[in-house]
Design goal:
Length: 197
């Protein structure tokens, strides 16, 4: 099985690659359209800004590849946000694979932005990525923008002063707002579930 992590330029590429390798996966990090189009599993990570990430994907010719992909695709953090129609970050049109917009996370004295820390994830319906997890399990979040937990493709939420999308899915397209590669055994379970989907 070929597993490709898209070289989106983020700082979490190596940690994601190592997390997958610890699960026994043979992983390629690539920005090549042919390699990504032929992969059995594709992961779109992201750390940084939506505008820069979309520019990188567009320059590599990956927008049509990702829109036409029929194998499982997992967006992680910014990669999940790019699955939606638009991001308020840099007022950027994104991949338009899921309905909805990504908005700036408001800051308050009690809840600073960006949101950095461990939060539980509450499933709204059965989701294969979350198989084997408990309601008390926590995942590690780092983000300053969010998709609303009320959007139609949201399958699990987290609470940070409001309901935020923690896990999204439409068919073969899925995303997680948190970083599974930094979420210990819980994150390893989620990545294993993706590989075994």
């Amino acid at each position: 099985m070929s597993i490709v992590v898209i070289d989106s330029g983020g700082a979490n590429l190596a940690s994601l690659q190592y997390a997958l390798q610890r699960l026994g996966a043979d992983v390629i990090v690539s920005l090549e359209t042919d390699v990504i189009a032929k992969a059995d599993r594709v992961l779109l990570p992201g750390v940084g800004a939506a505008g820069a990430a979309m520019t990188r994907l567009r320059s590599a010719g990956l927008i049509p590849v990702l829109r036409n992909l029929r194998k499982p695709l997992l967006g992680i953090c910014l990669g999940m946000q790019l699955l939606f129609e638009h991001s308020a970050e840099d007022e950027t049109d994104t991949l338009d694979l899921l309905a909805g917009r990504v908005e700036r996370l408001p800051a308050s004295p009690a809840l600073p932005a960006p949101h950095m820390g461990w939060n539980t994830v509450s499933a709204r319906r059965t989701e294969p990525l979350l198989a084997g997890l408990q309601p008390t399990d926590r995942c590690y979040f780092v983000h300053g923008y969010f998709a609303s937990g009320a959007l139609p493709d949201v399958v699990a939420t987290s609470d940070y002063g409001r309901s935020i999308a923690a896990v999204v899915r439409r068919g073969h397209i899925a995303g997680v707002q948190f970083h599974p590669e930094r979420s210990g055994a819980v994150g390893a379970t989620i990545l294993r579930n993706f590989l075994n989907a």
